Amino acid sequence: TSRIDVKNTSDLIPVGAIRKAVVGTKDETILRILVQNSKTNKESELHFQKLIYDRIDWNSAEDIAAINSWISQIWFRGGNKSKTVVRWHRDEELWIELFHHLLVIAALDRNIARLTTTDVMHAFNDFFVDRVLKDKNGADLPPRDVREKDAFKAKIGRLATTTRWRVNGLIEINLEYKNLGRGAPQEYIPAITSSMLEHFKKTAEFMQSRKMTTERQDSKDLEHWISFLRKLP
After folding, report:
1. Burial 146-170 (b: 16+ CB within 10 A, else e)
2. What b/e sequence results for 28-59 when a residue is b if at least 16 CB atoms lie within 10 Å of its CB, and e otherwise?
């Protein structure tokens, strides 16, 4: 097995928190590390190959040191030992979807300015930074950290695509008809609260249970959905 040159930089960033092997504790899950390519966002696994798994002596300080040396090489070869990837939580994804739905509602009523990805990211981080979310088993996750621009831009590009299409379309229409009483575009940033997000989450879960998981650009009869969004607590 070729040795990893820790002096070389890498596009592969470990996902989650660093874990180390402990003498006397057998844990073969530690022999593989999930990584994400910082350029493509594609995930893959790196596997420990210095020893045959069935022959690892978990009570041997030498074997444990070899495993931990490999883990450290993977972690540090990117040149930033604190740089990790935190998986996106469903609440974060729903926040992005709700944010754009609220933009649609606002654009139906008045002339709003087009927001940049940075504008949305700042509002997102204001809501989530230091917030403690729950995992699928109900346990507390570490407080959320800031989502950086590149990661946020990549994520938002895959979410709420149809809703963003509607927002942009309404903004263009409003610009064309700004002389008909709606005036110049005004900045509008939806102020999402925890209760709004929770209410939206329950509705999204209900829709998913009814197999309503896709959205069409030519959707009609949206009165009930629009009414629901306008009445969010």
Report:
1. ebeeebbeebbeebbeebbebbeeb
2. eebbebebbeeeeeeeeebebeebeeeebeee
Cα separation, 87 vs 36, whole angstroms: 10
* Bridge partners (DSSP) listed for residue 140: 134
Q: What is the pLDDT of residue 166?
A: 73
Residues in the chain where the model's pLDDT stays below 50: 1-9, 79-82, 212-214, 216-224
Looking at residue 60, the DSSP 8-state letter turns out to be -
Residue 136 is predicted with a pLDDT of: 84
Instruction: Give the single-character DSSP code of 134.
Output: B
Domain segments of the chain: what residues? 12-76, 90-230
pLDDT at 230: 57
Please list the alpha-helical segments (H only) found in 19-81. 61-76
